[in-house]
Amino acid sequence: MKKYKELGIRDEQAMQLEILRQFNELCKCENIQYFAGYGTLLGAVREKGFIDWDDDIDLWMKRENICKFESEFYNYFDKNKYFLQTYESDPDCLSPEMLRICVNNTFKWDENIGKENFHTGIYFDIFPLDYAFSDERDGEYITELAKRHSRLYSNLKYKWFKLNLKEKAKYIKNHLKSRKYLSKKVREIADLYAKNTKSSIYICVPAATDGYEKCCFEPDIFSKSVNLQFEDLEISCPIGYHRLLIKLYGKDYMTPKVTKGERHKAFVIEESV
Fold it and tell me: Phi, psi at residue 101, to the nearest 5°?
């Protein structure tokens, strides 16, 4: 029989930091460039570590480095402890357009979702960065596809407990079919533009769901990286982090907000004797 031990925010952050330590080692040894993103970047710049309520790590990686990272992952991470969640390794996952490093024998609780047929452990997000289009309308198209992923996910979350068993089965079937199709289209478009970097006027995060304005950035922001302190580590951040953070969080991003982000409970799964 399984027992669930709830983790506090500091315990979960310590677990995330250990993943980041191993991730840093992999990228350094294999010469793979990455960038801190979202709350992780904000935490590095403003707090020199985790934002108090932040319970995961968000990183960005250019798509040309993704395949190499995937191929080297289990040379640095113990497969008994960690699982690299991708569209190929976990086809039913909710975010097939990105990578997640999941911790085995853990569980991340979301009260809006029932029991799922994919890894639901504590996770660490890696978002692909894609060269995007020579025409802004192309950017709107690719990010619209990504936004549809978010709407499908939200519909599943908030409708789940209102459906009977038969309705759930039908909903999941249709939901997964639509999500896989959209993910495939995003990847096809991303692969097309990845080969045409000279004509690209933006770099975008197609897995983002904040809309066109907040997931498309000028390429020079990512032209170089700079190391910033994050807890007891140094992590790679985009050279243009100031402009990027203004776009994501506004000109006052250095001022902590009173409102805290949503946190889902996390558990370690223990086998009872």
Answer: -90, 115
Q: Report the C-alpha gap between 91 and 249 in whole angstroms.
A: 33
The tokens describing 177, both together, are 């079919």
Q: What is the pLDDT of residues 65-97, one digit of tens each?
A: 998 999 999 999 999 999 999 878 887 676 667
- Please report which helix (H) or strand (E) contains residue 99, including its range: strand 99-103
Q: How far apart are CA 189 and CA 184, in angstroms?
A: 9
61 contacts 125 by C-beta, under 8 angstroms: no
Condensed to tens digits (0 to 9), the pLDDT of residues 198-222 reads 566 778 776 655 655 677 788 899 9
* Crossing angle of the two packed helices 63-76 and 165-194, in degrees rounded to 10: 120
Q: Is 79 left (phi over 0), alpha (psi -120 to 50) or beta?
A: alpha
Q: Which of 202, 206, 203 is nearest to 189 (CA)?
A: 206
pTM of the full structure: 0.80
